[in-house]
């Protein structure tokens, strides 16, 4: 009889213990599904650009931006600072999620605002690197490595700006509706998005500061 009872169970219905459809609904919201789909699409876009970039590194006119002391990204201090800045943005947002029942709403809002400010600082830091390259003659069309640097970092910055716009809308909606449950769900999605952008940046940072020899090794492994 135990086997028949197990087969007759309906897990999508809410049980007396509170586990069932309500639990599934909490963990599989439309927002989470939409975010997963969006991140999958964005990942495909970045992967395609990276594959194209790695293939382009094997042409004779390609000159990496790092690998020799005279190259601009051989000293990657500014990019390291930018990496630390975007890491702090993820940390501030994660704290605002973890402390939702332990601190006041004003404290959480302060953490979110700090995350938004340091995200803007990251974009400003990237703009400084673009200015440095441009001032030293590394224009967007003078070398394929330059073009891909502007393209990949610019695409990443655009996604971050989109996240900032969504975050501002989130704060505005909360102030108007004061729906803490809806706000917490949206904030969790935004935090996941920031973590994703941080790891994307780590991959881009590692790739764009590699030397020509490193690209040759990667190309051999990938079969380019």
UniProtKB/TrEMBL annotation:
The chain crosses the membrane at residues 37-59, 79-99, 111-129, 149-175, 187-208. Keywords: Membrane, Transmembrane, Transmembrane helix. Gene3D superfamilies: Cytochrome c oxidase, subunit III, four-helix bundle. It is a multi-pass membrane protein. Residues 1-213 form the Heme-copper oxidase subunit III family profile domain. It comes from Thalassotalea fonticola. InterPro entries: Cyt_c/ubiquinol_Oxase_su3, Cyt_c_oxidase-like_su3, Cyt_c_oxidase_su3-like_sf, Cyt_c_oxidase_su3_a-hlx. The keyword Membrane applies. This is Cytochrome c oxidase subunit 3. It is found in: Cell membrane; Membrane. Signal peptide: none annotated.
């Amino acid at each position: 009889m135990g086997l028949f009872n197990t087969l007759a169970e309906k897990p999508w219905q809410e049980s007396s213990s509170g586990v069932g459809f309500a639990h599934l609904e909490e963990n599989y919201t439309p927002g989470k599904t939409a975010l997963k789909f969006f991140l999958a699409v964005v990942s495909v876009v970045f992967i395609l650009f990276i594959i194209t970039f790695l293939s382009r590194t094997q042409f004779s006119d390609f000159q990496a931006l790092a690998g020799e002391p005279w190259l601009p990204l051989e000293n990657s201090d500014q990019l390291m600072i930018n990496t630390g800045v975007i890491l702090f943005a993820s940390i501030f947002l994660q704290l605002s999620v973890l402390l939702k029942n332990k601190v006041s709403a004003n404290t959480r809002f302060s953490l979110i605002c700090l995350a938004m400010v340091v995200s803007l600082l990251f974009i400003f830091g990237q703009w400084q690197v673009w200015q440095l390259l441009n001032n030293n003659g590394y224009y967007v069309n003078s070398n394929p490595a330059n073009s891909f640097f502007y393209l990949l970092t610019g695409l990443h910055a655009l996604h971050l700006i989109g996240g900032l716009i969504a975050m501002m809308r989130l704060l505005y909606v909360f102030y108007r509706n004061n729906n803490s449950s809806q706000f917490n769900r949206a904030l969790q999605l935004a935090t996941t998005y920031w973590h994703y952008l941080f790891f994307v940046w780590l991959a881009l940072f590692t790739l764009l500061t590699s030397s020509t020899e490193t690209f040759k090794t990667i190309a051999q492994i990938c079969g380019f």
